């Protein structure tokens, strides 16, 4: 259980922050950028939820919880030291990736195949889901870059990759199952 009885600690005033293993790093470190952007994705999901209800809202709530799991995973380097940790670190699992794949498959079965790229927009929910998609793609790029420098849980990268696809499909579903998608018209304004 997390207890936050003091919000500011002043320990970051010199431009450093603590990772999940207690190590101090610069606030602009790649690992911090990666999990910070995951937090940003979570905030965009919170905005999308203002326009969602029912099963979509429940799915977005699950995703928000997963994103906290993902942040906890990314803030903890040295996966090879997990067995020696005082408390087992929280790591993303393949089951979380498989759940997203299953949900994407269910949405895709309802949607008409695309014959054009779509523009972000349509309904308010769709617009917010496309924002979630683009921020999750940025988080993925940062996690992939981090993985070229340090160890990163492969399930974390897979999750981010599937998540942006999930947001894409969910955005189409929010546009009357794709019927109200805004289609790109190449060269329309020449």
UniProtKB/TrEMBL annotation:
GO biological process, one term: cobalamin biosynthetic process
Pfam families: Cob_adeno_trans
Transmembrane region(s): none
One Gene Ontology term, aspect cellular component: cytoplasm
Catalytic activity: 2 cob(II)yrinate a,c diamide + reduced [electron-transfer flavoprotein] + 2 ATP = 2 adenosylcob(III)yrinate a,c-diamide + 2 triphosphate + oxidized [electron-transfer flavoprotein] + 3 H(+); 2 cob(II)alamin + reduced [electron-transfer flavoprotein] + 2 ATP = 2 adenosylcob(III)alamin + 2 triphosphate + oxidized [electron-transfer flavoprotein] + 3 H(+)
Known EC number: 2.5.1.17
Pathway per the UniProt entry: Cofactor biosynthesis; adenosylcobalamin biosynthesis; adenosylcobalamin from cob(II)yrinate a,c-diamide: step 2/7
Stretches assigned to the Cobalamin adenosyltransferase-like domain: 7-173
A GO MF label: ATP binding
Subcellular localization, as worded in the UniProt entry: Cytoplasm
Keywords tagged on the record: ATP-binding, Cobalamin biosynthesis, Cytoplasm, Nucleotide-binding, Transferase
Homology family: Belongs to the Cob(I)alamin adenosyltransferase family.
The name this protein goes by in its record: Corrinoid adenosyltransferase
Organism the protein comes from: Roseovarius faecimaris
